[in-house]
Design goal:
The chain has 267 residues and is of the alpha/beta class. It is built from 12 helices and 9 strands. A hairpin with a 5-residue loop joins strand 6 and strand 7. The longest helix is centred in the C-terminal third of the chain and has 19 residues.
């Protein structure tokens, strides 16, 4: 099994080195890291090119694009692996996680799983763990209610399934992961689930998640309406919009050390 880790990047300093290193140490011969840079100007491209000069498995291209989805589609078109893992340039893969995921890619009823879904962690900008979430299979109703309860960096997607699903929709700039997951589950994929974390999502002031939360909630509403199948989904969408809006507005508090300590003391 060959793995392609696709990394869209744009001005991703100072996190990009840690992102690439977290993957490189776990790759096998035939695997690859496919970097699609959006013409970074902060040193990101130089860091990526330095990795590529030392390891032929790191493959870098850089050109302007219309956004993250276009960069992801360009990376996908270059990927040659059997499975694809989408990792943003400020996130990381957990130690040993790719080895665990690879062990789960074995026949299910004589066929390989379409998806390997793992748990994930959230990190603050210094790399401290904020929270840990167990892996759960992708389900339409759960995605409509909870949004991306699975982290995109914790999914290994069989490449032909990803292509059949249509890749990444460039009409979405913030919730393309939710849209992708809903399109994937509509194809009824076979899934292998790992409860332990595969990837870790980093929250920081410059990240899209940390800087434009209101746009996430609004676009996620559009995504849910697009994939709605009836009144139950409409009700889930309304509740999810309210819940996500509140959650995004309270991120600074919930990601503070004070809150973490308080939550721990109440458990």
């Amino acid at each position: 099994m060959k793995l392609s880790v696709i990394i869209p990047s744009y001005n991703s300093m100072p996190y990009v080195t840690e992102a690439v290193e977290s993957v490189l140490s776990q790759l096998q011969p035939g695997d690859e890291i496919v970097v699609q840079d959006g013409a970074s100007t902060d040193g990101t491209l130089g860091v990526m090119q330095a990795f590529a000069s030392r390891d032929e498995r790191v493959k870098v291209e850089s050109q302007t694009d219309s956004g993250q989805s276009e960069a992801l589609n360009r990376a996908l078109s270059r990927a040659v692996g059997d499975y694809v893992l989408w990792l943003n340039a400020d996130d990381v893969v957990s130690d040993g996680a790719i080895h665990k995921a690879r062990a789960e890619i074995r026949p299910i009823d004589t066929e390989m799983p379409d998806l390997v879904v793992g748990g994930h962690r959230t990190l603050d900008q210094s790399g401290n763990v904020i929270a840990t979430y167990r892996g759960r299979p992708l389900q339409h109703s759960r995605l409509m209610s909870l949004g991306c309860y699975v982290f995109s960096g914790s999914m290994l997607i069989e490449k032909t399934l990803l292509v059949r699903a249509g890749g990444f929709q460039d009409k979405f700039n913030y919730s393309m992961d939710l849209d992708l997951m809903l399109r994937l589950v509509s194809l009824r994929p076979s899934q292998a689930v790992i409860e332990e974390p595969i990837g870790a999502l980093r929250w920081h002031d410059a990240s899209k998640s940390g800087s434009v939360g209101s746009r996430f909630a609004t676009e996620a509403w559009r995504v849910r309406r697009l994939h709605s199948t009836g009144l139950p989904d409409l009700a889930r969408s309304v509740a999810a919009f309210v819940r996500q809006s509140i959650a995004l507005s309270t991120i600074p508090l919930r990601h503070s050390r004070f809150y973490s300590k308080l939550r721990g003391s109440l458990r």
